[in-house]
From TrEMBL:
Residues 147-325 form the Helicase/UvrB N-terminal domain. One of its GO terms (molecular function) is hydrolase activity. This is Type III restriction enzyme, res subunit. It comes from the Bacteria. InterPro entries: Helicase/UvrB_N (IPR006935), P-loop_NTPase (IPR027417), Put_endonuclease_Z1-dom (IPR018310). Residues 402-631 form the Putative endonuclease Z1 domain. It comes from Nitrosomonas aestuarii.
Length: 902
């Protein structure tokens, strides 16, 4: 019996017993039901232990997966009535169809139920469309990359239509392929028929006789001047809802504005008076685009969006973003401009929770065990395609790690087929260059390699195993299987027999704005088939495009633009019943940046919840994001290409900074050793320190003046501008609310210090990375001491906390579905700042553990979260930019991957 049919038949047998368990069922409840039926399943269906494990995973996904309701940050003084929905008698026709559609698409029932609750809450934050007069509400929904934001806003659109919103605009990114994909989703979930062929689909198959919304955009065409001329009907003459899915492009937006103004505004009023409108901006996180292409200019596009909104007397704007570093906070030149922008979400910020089966950045990068499993280091690419390559540089060969990744993709497709998922899409993503020409070269080389290994499989997979393994490629596949998938519940012999079908199904696609090739998954679905795709591209795949069934990702890009980093993470999403097969290839440096931004994002999400408790409003969060130290990177690289100097406001509220880069100048370390020993002697002569469980010395209630003095005297690597210049100013800035500090001398070895000696910390698991060759003498080289902009582990941040504070940090972690607290949890629990000193031995693990630096002084500075938000001013110029850019920054502002003008 076919595996997927076998599982479906068994689900029918077990369903009655599972349904009676109700909404509170757990994984153990599912296990107990399966065990009850074990003899029947073994006898009737020949179930093995692997089958039982697979069945457990399938049923857990369907019945146990949950999603929290999220939280909303609103202005406590806002007079808006969120309860207007409860007073209206509403026929939820569009929503009921969409809900049925999602359940039919095998969405977990609890997740659909949560979406019902969440979309009601967001809709309640908008205006009642029946309310008279002129009104304007605007908000932002903060989700997660590839977590179902599109499904959420289609749910919101459906309910908005049910309540009386008549005109709906969805802005779906800057690329044709993303707009097309969004149009397809809207066709399925809201319109009910294919906008191009007019065939019923999605919700249209559930209620084919319902009043279908009108649209003039299709999967093949965006709104444009020609379309505007051909569609001369006024909106008020339409009986049905009207929806457009458009690209964020000046030409498109201008054409829409002119059409609306010409045909649909009343004489004398210049406003559309009786058509409540909702605008969904699904590209509200596009902070990093910095291009000289005028049609993509953020200032001009936002101006056009505002002009369209202002044509309506009754309008709402809802931005959707996957990162708190959204352009509405980051892009304006100053705070006044940000708060004055009439796209700023002054009315609400809604923070979505991800479902429990979401495979996201936290699971990959903030869990060391998962990082070891899912991430494979790229350490061989520089000789083939350097990070900093030029347009037109020849690509003669792909690196061995990419060849391995391709083999893993074929193996994973074979395993998924054997798990009954042969009708599910499977994809591999390769993102190595911003240049279209380089992407083409990579595609050709990938196709050559696929041809080689496909032929080897075809000639050998039917042979006796010993004969087949005489082939080099087959031996490589076997080693890859042993290394990565030996715990997948299948034998190598079984997988080998399936390799041919998997390899022959692979198709390659060039995915960029200048390519005619499209990842058209729906075309395969119509034929009852699945696509097995290797997608090669750049920015098009980095922003919003859903890559279905993504299993293997190979990314060799080193952007430091945080929204772009997370958007490149197309591997995030839902990987039900194949999560164990997913792998991400990236450089160690990229892994460090992803880890850092994952932690920063979690910290900002936690900040929203803290602000809600403190009665803050959206503008407070906007100011907090603008002043976040990591925002400096995004804004400076965007805005300083042509400016000599620019001032920024920076806050270290709730932040940690460490000397994660150490100089190779031994004289500098000698001076710091003298400084630390002198400071240690001074403290120990004053009082007896507390020695914690790690053997570290802890001194309490040290004055801020003493802390500032020691930080000012410490000699930092020249790249650490914040510790060298900003932190001392900030210490003084917050001295009235944080007058006293804790100081620790960290000793991770757990040895009791002898007398006044400070023992060196053997940090053997971090290796080292050179910061790069200096371009000028003042750019001193050195070493990274960790790949998250820090060298310390999370447990270190419990130093100085009492038992109640540690317990609170643990509770914060558990509330966020984390097993152990991360840095931001400890920061939220801390009430005093702490300065921690370390002595590091840097050891090159790749070179016979050669000692690079011995007893090199390092420090950590950690500030608690406070209710009194402070900033310091910092002016950066060309020298700062050069120091920063020496760490290899691949800027998306230079992307070659834009759609040609329409």
């Amino acid at each position: 019996m076919h595996e997927s049919k076998k599982i479906n038949d068994v689900k029918k047998i077990l369903s009655q017993d599972i349904v009676v368990l109700g909404d509170k069922m757990t994984s153990k409840d599912i296990f107990d039901v399966i065990e009850q039926y074990r003899p029947v399943l073994e006898a009737r269906f020949g179930f093995s232990n692997d089958d039982f494990e697979h069945l457990q995973r399938v049923l857990e996904t369907e019945y146990v997966t949950t999603m929290g309701a999220g939280v909303s940050l609103i202005d406590p003084e806002d007079v808006h009535d969120e309860k207007w929905l409860t007073r209206r008698e509403i026929d939820w026709n569009y929503w009921n169809d969409y809900e049925s559609y999602l359940i039919g698409e095998n969405w977990p029932t609890r997740v659909v139920s949560s979406m019902d609750t969440i979309t009601n809450k967001i809709l309640g934050l908008l205006k009642d469309p029946e309310e008279e007069g002129e009104w304007y509400r605007r908000g932002l929904v903060l989700g997660h990359v590839q977590s179902g934001k599109t499904a959420n806003y289609i749910g919101l659109i459906s309910k908005a239509a049910d309540t009386g919103y008549k005109f709906i605009i969805v802005i779906a990114g800057i690329h044709n392929n993303l707009r097309k994909q969004t149009q397809e989703r809207v066709d399925e979930g809201f319109i009910g028929r294919d906008s191009t062929t007019k065939e019923f689909k999605g919700v249209g198959l559930i209620s084919p006789k319902r009043g279908m919304p009108v649209t003039v955009t299709t999967t093949e065409s965006d709104f444009n001047k020609a379309l505007a001329k051909s569609f001369g009907m006024e909106l008020k003459s339409l009986n049905n809802k009207f929806i457009l899915v458009i690209k964020k492009n000046v030409h498109t937006l201008s054409a829409l504005y002119n059409w609306l103004k010409k045909l649909n505004t009343r004489e004398g009023l210049e406003k559309i008076t009786d058509i409540p409108m909702l605008l969904i901006d699904d590209e509200a996180d596009n902070a990093s685009i910095n291009t000289n292409k005028p049609e993509l200019d953020p200032t001009r596009t936002n101006k056009e969006i505002r002009a369209i909104l202002n044509l309506f007397r009754k309008r709402c704007y809802v931005g959707y973003t996957a990162t708190p570093f959204a352009n509405i906070f980051v892009n304006p030149d100053d705070a006044d401009e940000m708060l004055g922008d009439n796209l700023f979400p002054k009315d609400f910020i809604y923070c979505l929770d991800a479902p429990t089966n979401y495979f996201g950045s936290e699971k990959i990068f903030l869990n060391d065990e998962n990082s070891e499993k899912f991430i494979i280091e790229i350490d061989d690419c520089e000789g083939h395609i350097p990070l900093r390559h030029k347009n037109g540089d020849p690509v003669l060969e792909i690196p061995p790690t990419l060849k391995e990744a391709i083999r893993l993709f074929i193996l994973s497709r074979a395993i998924r087929n054997l798990r009954g998922q042969e009708k599910k899409h499977a994809s591999m993503m390769i993102n190595m260059s911003r240049f279209v020409a380089t992407q083409r070269d990579v595609k050709q080389l990938v196709e050559l390699y696929l041809d080689e290994i496909s032929k080897a499989i075809k000639f050998n997979y039917k042979l006796p195993i010993a004969n087949a393994e005489k082939d080099l490629f087959i031996r490589q596949f076997k080693e890859d299987f042993r290394k990565e998938y030996s715990d997948a519940g299948l034998s190598w012999e079984t997988v080998l027999k399936e390799l041919n079908d998997a390899a022959q199904a692979v198709k390659t696609f060039l995915v960029n704005g200048k390519s005619d090739e499209t990842l058209d998954y729906s075309a395969y679905e119509k034929e009852g088939d699945a696509l097995t795709a290797v997608a090669i591209g750049g920015l098009s795949m980095s922003r919003g495009l859903t890559v279905e069934g993504l299993t293997i990702s190979y990314i060799y890009r080193n952007s430091k633009m945080y929204d772009t980093l997370m958007q490149m993470g197309r591997w995030f999403g839902y990987r039900d019943n194949y999560e164990d097969l997913c792998r991400v290839y990236m450089s160690d440096v990229s892994k460090g940046w992803y880890s850092h931004i994952s932690e920063a994002t979690e910290e900002l999400r936690a900040q929203i919840k803290r602000m809600i408790r403190e009665g803050k409003k959206p503008s407070d969060f906007g100011l907090y994001v603008r002043a976040h130290p990591d925002t400096l990177i995004v804004t400076a690289l965007n805005k300083m290409r042509f400016a000599k100097n620019k001032s920024f406001q920076v806050s270290y509220d709730g932040q940690l900074k460490e000397t994660h880069i150490l100089s190779n100048d031994e004289r500098l370390h000698d001076k710091n050793r003298e400084l630390l020993n002198s400071f240690f002697q001074k403290l120990i002569s004053r009082e007896e320190p507390y020695i914690d469980s790690t053997g570290s010395y802890l001194f309490r209630d040290i004055s801020w003046e003493t802390i500032q003095e020691i930080v000012l005297k410490f000699k930092f690597h020249k790249s650490l501008y914040d510790l060298d210049e900003l932190i001392p100013d900030y210490i003084k800035k917050v001295s009235d609310i944080l007058p006293n500090w804790d100081v620790s001398f960290k000793n991770p070895e757990g040895k009791q210090p002898e007398g006044s000696e400070i023992l060196a910390s053997q940090i053997r698991d971090i290796g080292y990375k050179e910061t790069g060759k200096p371009k000028k003498p003042e750019y001193a080289p050195g070493w990274y001491t960790g790949n998250k902009q820090r060298f310390s582990g999370n447990s270190m941040f419990a130093i100085g906390l009492d038992d109640d504070q540690k317990e609170y940090a643990q509770k914060l972690a558990e509330d966020a579905d984390r097993k152990n607290p991360i840095f931001s949890d400890f920061t939220n629990a801390r009430t005093k700042p702490i300065l921690m000193f370390h002595l590091l031995d840097l050891i090159d693990k790749k070179n016979n553990e050669e000692v690079i630096l011995k007893r090199a002084p390092a420090l950590s500075v950690s500030f608690p979260n406070s209710t009194d938000f402070r900033t310091v001013d910092y002016t950066v110029g060309p020298v700062w930019l050069k120091q920063f850019e020496q760490e290899r920054c691949d800027s998306p502002g230079e992307e070659d991957d834009y759609d040609p003008e329409q």
